[in-house]
Amino acid sequence: MACKMVNIIPIFLILLSTLLSSSHGNAVESPLCGGRVFVENTVVIEAPVHEHCYWDIQTQDDRILVITALNGNLKEAQDFLAIHDGSSKESPILLVENQRMHEVSRKDMPEAVYTTQSTASIRFKKAPTSNLQLKIQKAVDCPFNLGTASQCGRVIDDVSCYCASFTERSQTDQRVYCYNHNMKLLSLETFEKEQAIHAAWGYGARFWTSLTDAIYEGTWYWESTDTALLPGYSHWCYRKPDDAGLFGGEDCMIINYESDGCWNDANCDNDKFDAICQALP
Q1: CA distances for 164 relative to 29, 73, 168, 184, 281, angstroms
Q2: Which of 178, 185, 206, 266 is most buried per CB count within 10 Å?
């Protein structure tokens, strides 16, 4: 019997978190032989029990898709499915072994394929021999070509991107640099995120972040995410911030000021340091 394409109502498909819950979130049941899915954050689909089932996947226009296997091996799964970079019949097939890896990306992330656009199609050539679930997430594109004085990678997870710029500039100029590459200056909301940044780039450089109290002295907030520092995580160096710069007030923050990577305030316009940019899905 020929398979019928089914239009799936997105609200039943969307998992409202970029991280998968222990229950694996919402999944499209196996009896459905393909369909169309819009990925708001994360979607989990069951491999079908039928042959020749097609899934058309889409996310917002300025994002890409990343596909991983929740159980089983994605590379081995390529024996019975094909992941196409786009939704047309001529779209190229994405292979795990052909995926480019950023040098500073975490090594413990699962095998994945990334699209180069906001659409993909998954075509099951035959039914898998074991139960398989595919996790499909909305992700940001992570550049490879920002130059020798920069370095990018999937430092925190497989959907976001972080780029270190090793050209010293003022915080103001670094903010513009990040913006020109569709990113924003770093925010550090948790200890775990800060440790991941240190694992990628060590403690040797001083990096500008988006933390500032330029609007109200003493009231620090993350400009990139428009969230207040307190009552959140902070890691100020001893007796910092002190607003005691040579050129006037110190209204911006750098990390890696000392060997333990603590935070220090600095002058946004006159002091020059490296920077870390971030792009979140």
Answers
A1: 42, 32, 11, 11, 18
A2: 185
SS (H, E, C) 226-278: CEECCCCCCCECCCCCCCCECCECCCEEEECCCCCCCEEEECCCCCCEEEEEE
Q: Are 269 and 156 in contact (CB under 8 A)?
A: no
How many other CB atoms are there within 10 angstroms of residue 27's CB atom? Answer: 17
pLDDT number for residue 132: 84
Residue 169 and residue 176: Cα distance in Å, rounded?
Answer: 10
Cβ-in-10-Å burial (0-12, 13-18, 19+) of 215 comes to exposed
Give 78-108 pLDDT, tens digit per residue.
988 999 999 988 999 999 999 999 999 999 9
pLDDT of residue 51: 72
